[in-house]
Structure formats: structure tokens, C-alpha cells
Amino acid sequence: MEDQLDKTINTLLTEANNRSRWYSSQLWQLPFAYIGGTAVTIAQFMEIKDGHFEYLDIVVSLSAILGGIVCWHMLKVRAAKRRAIYLLIHLEEQSGLTKKYRAQQGKVALPMIIATFVATFFYANWAIALICKSWKQWNWLTCGSI
């Protein structure tokens, strides 16, 4: 019976460890995939056709919406990673193992979330400026940059 319990705890430790690593990799990969993917997509629509950028306002708007979804997902992944680490800590305490894991604040994840938020904020402002320009309501927001 004791052997079965050790096997179960070992399996749980392995799964929680794999899960926390997978969450950590998502926190690194998502911002780069989002920023890179949206930049490439926007670059495809940067060609001027008939004196204006065709569909650029729609693409930038969709990039901003996608960024909001990615930011929300990253916050959920960060919380799930924290839960997996607390599960590891709890399992170690219950089984009497030496503590190898410790809960840390998101020293790596937080800058990645902030970078994604900044890119989303930039895309949202750019989309608003493009939409205002296309509606001939262009005002002081642009500073002449677009």
C-alpha cells in the first residue's frame, strides 16, 4: 500500500512539474508569437493602393482585439502556473520530501505580459487613428505620424 502511495505522489509530482514547465513556456512564447504574427500581417497590408492603405484599419483593429485576448490568456496561464507550483509544494510537504520548489512572483512573466499589453495598446491607438483618418475626422492625436 505504501508503495502505491509513493507511486501516486511521484506521478502527481511529475505531472505538476510538467504542467508548470508548459505554462512557463507559454508565457515566453505567446508574446513573441503575437507580436511577430501581427507585425507580419500588418506589413502585408502596408502597401498603398489608390492613395490609401487598404484594409489596414481593419487589420490593426483585429490585432488590438487579438492582443486583448492574448493578455487575458497570459494572465490565466500565469495563475495556472502558480497553482501548479503550489501543488508541487503541497505534495512535497505531504510526502516529507525536501523542498525543491518555491513560489516566486512573476519576475519573468510580468515583463512579457507588459510587453504584450504595450503592443496591444499601440495597436489600439493606431487603429483609432486610422479609423478617424478614414472618416475624415483626423485630429491632434496623430502628431502627423500617419
Structural class by helix and strand composition? mainly alpha
Could you tell me the radius of gyration in angstroms? 23 Å
Write the element-wise H/E pattern from the N-terminal end onward.
HEEHH
How would you characterize the largest beta sheet?
Answer: 2 strands, antiparallel
Number of strands: 2
Principal-axis shape: rod-shaped
The structural domain count equals 1
What topology, given as strand order, has the largest sheet?
1-2
Overall mean pLDDT stands at 81
Specify the helix fraction band: over 70%
Describe this structure in words.
With 146 residues, this protein is mainly α. It has one domain. It is built from three helices and two strands, in the order αββαα. A two-stranded antiparallel sheet has the order 1-2. It is rod-shaped and about 75 Å long. 21% of the residues are buried. The mean pLDDT is 81.
Relevant terms:
two-stranded antiparallel sheet, rod-shaped, 75% helix, mainly alpha, 146 residues
What is the topological layout?
Blueprint: H1 2-44, E1 48-49, E2 52-53, H2 56-95, H3 109-134
Antiparallel strand pairs: 1-2
